[in-house]
Model the fold of this input.
Amino acid sequence: MERITTILIAIMMATVSLAGCSGDDSGYEDTISSMEQDAIADQAMMAALNATISTLTVDLETLGTQITGLDSQIADLQTEIESLSLQNSTKTNQIELMTLNMTTLVNAKALLEAQALVLDSEKALLEAQVSSLTASNQDAATDIAELQALSSQLNQTIQQLESTISDMENSGSSISSTLNTIIDRGTMKCGVKSSQYGMGYTDSSGVRSGLDITYCRAVAAAIGLDPDTDVEYILASGSNRFEMLASGTIDVLIRTTTWTASRDADLEADYAGINFYDGQGIMVREDRFSAAAAGNSATALDEATICVGIGTTTEGNLYDWFSSREITFTSVPVADYSEANQKFIDGDCDALTGDASALVARKWQLDNDGSMNGVDIWIATEQMSKEPLAAVTRDYDTEWNDVVEWVWFGMITAEESGVTSSNYAAQANDACATNDAGSTTDPGICRLLTENFGLGTAENPLSGTWMQDVLAVSGNYGEAYDEAFCDGTYDGVSGSDAMSGCLISRAGTLNALVSEGGIQYAPSMR
Done:
């Protein structure tokens, strides 16, 4: 359209220009005619173009409508795509969950298959057990029949025993406490030794002394006997002492006897108070083994001959100690102290082993009686064992054992409480007096000196003042120790350091009171 309009305007301008000019216009007319023809042609073309344009406009409108429809379809498709994408995500999650579930199920299947194998194995085992039990039941049935027969026999035996017991009860037969036997007899038989100074010793005039002897006297006093006239001292050796106790030859054994498990369990013996904590040592002749060369040690006694008591714990300890150190020796067995002492003096043995307390006492005697003819003797520094020395009674004689044990505990308690052989009467009066508050002044000391604590038998209970009788005869533990090993001047209350002239000092040893660092103490007396 713009092109056609431009051409028409150009023609009009040309016409105006030509009309105003002078001269021949024939040439122009041809031009104009040509131009008119062109214009007509152009108009025709314009008409065709307009028709085409109209057609294209219609086509464009149609296409616009189609585009709008396609846009709507595209929007619908996008919505559908989004919906499908959401569904796809959900399906993917479901697939993953199903995959996980499938993996779990596969694992569970494997576990169940393994359990099935185990159960099959257990089933086979149980079937075997059932078979075995079936056989056992058959055997048990046979055993039951045999046991029923045996039960019948046992019932008959029980009836016979009951009849025997009834006969014994009717005849008045019964097992009597040793305490009752002693009281009925009027004397107490105490198994002792007589050759160990400080423990059990008899001097040339027949006077007995030592911690074991004092213990015997204290027990006699506690049960109401006269220790000076009513105690029969019977010599018991290391080899026969337990037989003497079991047979009733002695009522109580107080003879440096070590408390051991096998003795307590196997020898029909029941141990009571431990009156001395000892240890095994070795005493040596200087002319056989020099103390300086040996360094005062038993480890230097290779190939020595050693005297040792038969049936004593020292015998076993000696073998254990030397063999564990690969030291050779020859044992010379002896029955008692006298034989050991003489063999040592005569040179039949190079050394002598025994409780350290016994060796100290022997050394003191040998050094002072001139029997060694100038030969020096020395005691090795080692102790080969623990030797708790205690009183012993027969098994199944509890009431008597209690008396023997608590006599010793009473002596220890007395020293701990400051009660002595010289002040017990005054202490009893003061302790049992009533104070301003209406109470006993010292209940502990009052009980110690005025109660029997249920000791004794129904027929022969201890008196309420039994501990006063013990103190009158033996003193407290410290006094008894001082009389046995020291010079006898201890006041009974000042402690181990106050003891003087001691063959074996108590200070710093296991035999000191627990308040002084030792282990001697008594259970509560109440």
